[in-house]
Fold each of these.
Amino acid sequence: RQTAIWGYNGLLPGPEIRVRQGVRLRIAVRNDLDEATTIHWHGVRVPNAMDGVPDLTQAPIAPGGSFFYEFDAVDAGTWWYHPHQRSFEQVGRGLYGPLVIEEPEPIRVDRDVTWMLDDWRLTKADEISDDFGNRFDINHNGRVGNTVTINGRMPGAFKVMNGERIRLRLINAANARIFALDFETLDPIVIALDGQPVAPHSPDNRRIVLGPAMRVDLILDMTGNTGSRIAVVDRFYEGLEYTLVELAYDDTPMRARVPDWPIELPANPLREPEISNAIRHDVVFNGGMMGGMVMQEMGGRMGHVGTARMTGGMGSMMGMMHADKVWFVNGVAAEGHIMDPMLILERDRSHIIAMTNATAWHHPIHLHGHSFRVISRDGKPTRYREWQDTVLMAPREKVEIALVADNPGDWMFHCHILEHQAAGMMGVIRVA
Ligand code: C2O
Ligand code: CU
């Protein structure tokens, strides 16, 4: 059955914007909703005024109003767009679309396919349940739905041909659901994370993990038998595994063996952070159900890392409990997008942000306006030093990211579980 949604140009997902790297994008937006909105170009290194953050970088687009976005397609890759105003409901009702910026010479594949993943909480009548932002979702792992879609539909079989090479661009547009996709006997090769090229590799445990807002570009070489099927299974939530979609081989092969065309993507023009003389900053996330318990536990282990801050966090957490602001970044729960910067990064310098997840939950942490290298997890250097704009932190995990702060302005820094963001898990990082 069909479900009424909110969409861009009436479509779900919104229209795929696809341009060549280096061109200038000009996008006219008219708001036909009954409430204000903005559009944020997730992961794209836009000038601050084009970042689509209500009140902070622009006035919200009122009902009936318009806004004109204009920026350069600096980095090739897989990006997406969505509102930044009441996003837990606006995105949750379907406002999102893909933005693909092609390399000047794209790698050769047989098909370039985009899958926007989402999940919905539908009622028995297949309508969107209107309990957006309820207290339980806010305090726990966000609004996880009961119906998963690819490009706005419940997936049937996805047709493939033996010997075919597909570039699959996965975008997680869900408010809160984390995916861990298992392609069974296939060996997907990761070539880009959050739009940015990475050394081609098979993922750990053969699972493609995507927290909300994250993207993964895969090379899929179809090596199964003509006429057979391969299930793509989401194994993130233990005990709740399900088949997302089946890949169904056509009766005729495309070619006898998979092609050996190169799959490495050219680097984007990112500035390399100098780790040896980077300025260090500490960030602690806390709150949520069981947050206090985990905080006490972490307090003992964390040594010098901002004990005072954590105590502050605890204090304000108690004070705020009544106010539906239950998630904290360095002890502060955001109310709206206007706030004093939690960090000021000296412009054109290298910075390391050492983040601690002092909660019992996963959080995909997103920084606007920049891509950063993920350099360590729990003190161990990462293998690929991947560039990301959203990094998934496991409960109690510590992650260090590094970047050159080369894009001036006030930038949001927040959890992309949209219920956590709405309940305070957000701050402003100023580059000046
Ligand atoms: Cu995808 Cu601040 O957002
Ligand atoms: Cu979160």
Amino acid sequence: MAFVERLPRQVVVVEVGPRDGLQNEAQPVPTELKVAFIERLAEAGLPVIEVTSFVSPKAVPQLADAEEVMRRIARRPGTRYLALVPNERGLDRALAAGCDAIALFTAASEAFSQVNVHASIEETFQRFRPVAERARAAGLWIRGYVSTAFHCPYSGPVDPRQALSVTERLFALGCHEVALADTIGRATPRDVDRLLALATRAFEPSRLALHFHDTAGLALANVMIGLDYGITVFDASAGGLGGCPFAPGAPGNLATERLLALLEGLGIETGVDREAVAAAVAELHQAVPGIGAHAC
Ligand code: HMG
Ligand code: MG
């Protein structure tokens, strides 16, 4: 069978720009511009949009308006609006703002976990247990993130078995989907191959997502490896905005427009209008000149 014919016919693109992108801007983007950006992205047909984080506003002042953003966006039927939640306080805020989909985030490396959330990996799971229990009881859809699934900015290469074990724990908590994240964009196709060989044996590929930053320009090559393993959920950020303020060397996420161009070129359906995404990015650039120029 030809290579392209054995790839999935449909893929879900998860737009993380409003959260992963805007969390990394030196200056917070005004709330009304965030709301307009999210609404444009939803109109472009993106089925899942990560809109904000209910984290400490001291840690991420760029997203201190999480409640307002979540309340003000006009919700498009069928679009899933995700928000990051680090602890029970975050869940309280997310529920009060009307969230019905949350993302819990932890890491495969202890060093990154300490810097990002001031907790060991074990402690993140202690925080998550009551969050997941209450979220499940409230009928929320839950994503889990494994940051530094391939490389840690502080401790170097990560053993795929460690990423696998964290993935397993997130599924055991009741996560519907787990995203394996290349936080600093250092993963090579070989690294992705190694982890997915293990992960797709242990879990349904349809429940795994891939989240690539594009530091080394290998994100699209890594997506190809994911497609070959039957992965059908890929994260991307409109305009390639993004990074993590707690991961030096983590510039933009894989750009949504580039991911869409690849998928279109492979004949894979996404239901997303690439030109409409580009127009949303152009509108944001016009309103905030220089946005995306200072990823760490
Ligand atoms: P902590 O520093 O360990 O201490 O926080 P704490 O729990 O005692 O809280 C510190 C202060 O924050 C206290 O306020 C709390 O009340 C408050 P104070 O007493 O100083 O006035 N607080 C909160 N406020 C609002 N909402 C909350 C909340 N929780 C505590 N939910 C904590 C731990 C995790 C909260 C903090 O370290 C934090 O918010 N970190 C931010 C982490 C973050 O957002 N990182 C970026 C997102 S992850 C990412 O980008 C990776 C990803 O893209 C995948 C990838 O690429 O790898 C997903
Ligand atoms: Mg990220």
